[in-house]
UniProtKB/TrEMBL annotation:
GO terms for biological process: innate immune response; positive regulation of canonical NF-kappaB signal transduction. Residues 165-176 have a biased composition (Polar residues). PANTHER family: TRAF-INTERACTING PROTEIN WITH FHA DOMAIN-CONTAINING PROTEIN A (PTHR31266:SF2), TRAF-INTERACTING PROTEIN WITH FHA DOMAIN-CONTAINING PROTEIN A FAMILY MEMBER (PTHR31266). It comes from Aptenodytes patagonicus (King penguin). This is TRAF-interacting protein with FHA domain-containing protein A.
Amino acid sequence: MTSFERAETEETVTCLHMTFYHPCQDNKMMFRCLNFCKREQVRADEMAKFGRDSNVCRYNLVDTRVSRIQFSLQFYRKLNSSQFCFEIKNMSKKTKLIVDQTELGYLNKIDLPWKCIICFGDYQILAEVQEGESVDYFETRLHLAEVPILQERCLPSLQPIPENGISSSMFPSQGKSPIEIDENES
């Protein structure tokens, strides 16, 4: 047997990609303590905490408006499953945490969706989970966004859509107003 054949089978590692944005990041540099674009290993039995207290939090945000511990992430495996997940818990008594459209108060927790946006105050974080098999640890990889993660969302048009499914907003009507026609007229 060659050394290649005797080598242990490689395990893939679950990686949590997190992209951070704050409108004042260029001026206030609240992300200066985060390691961007570098994978960082976290033991599976550790809770990953985000906040401004560098003695407690693994991921520090340098901002007095951020709680000492803003939120935490716990890595776990679902019961009777091989699927690994993250649970997110709001640790702030003063600030609500919004995960996609779910608002979490103090000590509320939910499963982190595979792809979601986490918001608190002016902070926006895009979280994306890349699946893996390792039971001993997971990895985080942090990114910095240049533009807001939450862009102006296109709200559905308040104009009625005709039964043929073609909206008049798709085709400019050159200022013409709708004309009502009796169905008996030709």
